Amino acid sequence: MISGESYYPRQLMAQVIFSWLFIILIYFFATDSLLSQLQQPVLISPGSDNTFWLLHLTGIPQFLLTNKVAALSFDLVVTTSCLVCIFIPAQRAFTIITVAGVWLLYVCYSTAAGKHYVQIGYLLAPLPFFALNSKRFSLLWEGLRYWVCFLFVCAGLYKLYYGGFFDADNMRNILLLENAQWLAFEPGSLQRNLIEFLIENKAAAQWLYRLAAVLQFSLLIGFFTRKYDDWLFCLLLLFHLANFILLHISFVDQSLIFAPFLPWKRWAQYFQLTTGND
Amino acid sequence: MFLTKVYREWKLFFYVIIVFIAGQAFFMFKGIENVPFFLYHMFSTPHAPADSVHVLLVNTPHGYFNTNKLSGREREMLLNSANYYDESKQRNFQDPLVMTVRKRIAPIADSTELAQMEKKLVNQPAAFDEFPAWWLRYFNSIQGQRFDSVQVISTFIRPGDSTDNISGQEVFSIKSTDK
After folding, report:
1. Is residue B78 a part of any domain in this protein?
2. Considering only alpha carbons, which residue of chain B is nearest residue A66?
3. Sheet holding B63-64, edge to edge
4. What residue segments make up the domains of chain A, in order of their start?
5. pLDDT tens track for B116-142
6. Cross-chain residue pair A41–B6, CB shorter than 8 Å
7. B123 in a domain, yes or no?
8. Which residues of chain B make contact with A151, given a CB cutoff of 8 A?
């Protein structure tokens, strides 16, 4: 027990989280973005990220991107290893392979696409499963939850620090920038009407932006109590849904970032699992 | 408190957290993202008002291709990479990253090492030559139809503009040589 609390049900969580990750990998496959589907990209863009630089200096991302057989083998290894993690949760080797694989996939996809993405839920959520021991796993899972809270609190604070929160036209300008191309091809729809309404009503758009910043900042509560995790989960879902509708930012790959706020212990009790099963 | 609990239960993890917090603080101060020290500052700066927005359009023999039909990941791969190519083209096919690489690496490496590292971090002219052919290959692989030729143009559009009368500057055009 950690300070009188029960542990998280590692086995149940491993099965759910790696199944979720597997669905994300299927989504990548369906959206032609697994390495073997990229048709051997020729440009790289490591940006100014030193970690990307170190990896590129080893030549691994370039090799995986340009070699079709290596790319296909890589995709097969990552997906198979993820499946193993679902069916055999109590092991570490395949967890390491899966985690290393999805992080490498992230680097390769980002460098080929010329943009570093912040859709990182699928990178973070599998990390605690490095621990096999229930006590250590619970500590890592709690750490992950704080990390996610920290990222969103920072996102809210950055909007204040960089001034986007105070600029009266900011959300309208963001909507214009992100939707110009989309609007050119989109026939009349409810979504189009909503976006156009917000572009025309900049005050409403900016209050929505401020609400989003407050919503992000509200994850600060997560540092003090887990009592409101259901609410934080709903707020995060709402935030990502709004991003999807207004800015077309899909959150399938990001969705695992919700996982730390789910009631795992309640679910374990419901399924009559005890920590002794782990 | 979580940190106290971690210190009591698992000292190694406690020290990892402390190092991580220090790293995160350092990179936030420097304003540079270094995975896994993610910086969540997207859309946080004021965006300047603009009458029109810079976009890349894909011109096919059947007219402009509706990129809304693609998934976000496909669209990003196609349009961001083309944007990167366009940016390099504006610089006479010099990778926009080259100056950053030289500035960061020159103080710690000699000219031979710098040249070797630059080769691994920066796109070489041959990569830019091959880019349009790769782009068409990927484009053909992700949407239902197969196009033998496409043109990517850079232009400015206003929200609500239709694509009927849009023209712009060519980023590249490519004709497939595959039979």
Report:
1. yes
2. B134
3. B63-64, B53-60, B149-157, B169-175
4. 1-132, 145-266
5. 999 999 999 999 999 999 999 999 999
6. no
7. no
8. 38, 40
